[in-house]
Amino acid sequence: MITVEKATRVAATADRLWHLLSSREGQCRLERGIVASIEFEGDGVGMVRHMRLEGHPPEIVVRERLDHCDPVAREMRLSIVDTGDIVPFACHSGHARVIPAGPAASILYLRTSFVPVDMEDEAARAIAERNHDMLIANVRAALAEPA
Hints:
This protein is α+β, with helices and mostly antiparallel strands. The chain has 3 helices and 7 strands, in the order E-H-H-E-E-E-E-E-E-H.
């Protein structure tokens, strides 16, 4: 099992950052560069995101399920339930948490855990790290826009 963790401070309130992470509109914005489109099935815990990945045929769909969402603690956990035969990870789980850092800032904590499928650990780790970096860049870009 590989676990990749990253935390970064952002200049936004915890509530604003949490809304960006937890809303459907925010999720679509934060996955830019990784995911071409997202369709949502259901609401709340158990909701499934159907994601078409950038650079792949539209019939390839990765499905993730929302396993945990706690708006009070500002944390959520998703797991891949269908790799679309494109994601080279088994038992993939992603966790995000927003931690207040005073009145005008917050910490974004990300953790991804998985087992690589037919690939070297370091190559798999690099994919996960690149995805974290892209999501953080998307967070910063979205927060730079007026609320």
